[in-house]
Amino acid sequence: MTQETIKLNGTIYDSSSLADLKKWIDAAWKQEIFDFLFNWFDDSSEIITRTSGSTGTPKEIRLAKETMRNSAR
Questions:
Q1: CA-CA distance, 73 to 42, in Å (whole number)?
Q2: CB of 62 within 8 A of CB of 48?
Q3: What are the residues whose beta carbons fall under 8 Å from the beta carbon of 66, sequence distance 6 or more?
Q4: Which long-range contacts (CB under 8 A, 24 or more apart) does 68-72 make?
Q5: Phi and psi of 62, rounded to 5°?
Q6: Is 1 exposed, middle or buried (0-12, 13-18, 19+ CB in 10 A)?
Q7: 3-state DSSP call for residue 62?
Q8: Would you call 46 exposed, middle or buried from its count of C-beta atoms within 10 A (0-12, 13-18, 19+)?
Q9: Alpha-carbon distance 61 to 48, whole Å?
């Protein structure tokens, strides 16, 4: 029986290596959330984040915290 693999961004993964990748992604995602929250509560009136990159290379942008609060309301 042949083990199934998938190719993701040029790298071939099997079930074992994909599980390792998931752990890394989960950890990286949690770190990004922590960094955002840490920066949210600092004394700055802006927060620096990145665009999604869905239409090109992700770019760093500055957003006013007050604008984000108003948008959430």
A1: 21
A2: yes
A3: 45
A4: none
A5: -110, 130
A6: exposed
A7: strand
A8: middle
A9: 6
Q: pLDDT 10s digit of each residue in the chain, 73 long?
A: 567 787 877 888 887 887 777 777 777 778 888 888 888 888 899 999 888 888 889 899 999 999 998 998 8
Structure tokens at 21: 């990748």
What backbone torsions phi and psi does residue 16 show, to the nearest 5 degrees?
A: -70, -50
Residue type, 34: F
pTM (whole model) above 0.90: no
Which residue matches tokens 């599980």? 19
